Amino acid sequence: MMTTDHGSFRVGDVVEATVLEAKPFGVFVETHGVQGFVPVPELSWGRVGNPELLFKKGQALRCKVLKLPDASRPNEFVGSVRAVHPEQNPWRDPEIYKEGTVYRGRVVLQMPYGCFVEHPRGACGLLHVDDLDRSIALGDELEVVVVELEVDKEKFRVHVVDDIATD
Length: 167
Hints:
The protein is mostly beta strands. It has 2 domains: 2-88, CATH 2.40.50.140; 94-166, CATH 2.40.50.140. 6% of the residues lie in helices and 46% in strands. The chain has helices at residues 51-54, 161-166; strands at residues 2-4, 7-9, 14-23, 26-31, 34-39, 60-67, 76-80, 102-111, 114-118, 124-128, 141-150, 155-160.
């Protein structure tokens, strides 16, 4: 339990916080006189490109306390905005990503090893560079099919539907 001038909070508590500063790697917040940090993966169930565009200084938000200050971060708790909204978890029904499922999605991230195609429910499937026969750009809309699902790791791989048809 963390005791502050304004009360106490524990791991698992949902607190009202105020944004102090947004950075590319997360958002610094304050609640009950204690500073906190919400890392990018904990900001939303969907992909967050740049937190600085979504969160502004002074903005109020609710976050769940994941970790209290400790020796590694003596003046800072770690929080999660997405944990306050479990109903938005794109993995609450993993059957929608089963192998063979076809969906139309947008390329939301490109990496040296491939790109990620966002499913309408928010999760992103990896389209591996070895599975591409043409160039793909950020923002492109693609029709893809799920070819591999790893529920325990919350990830799946996709192929472009046209590429499957021509194999």
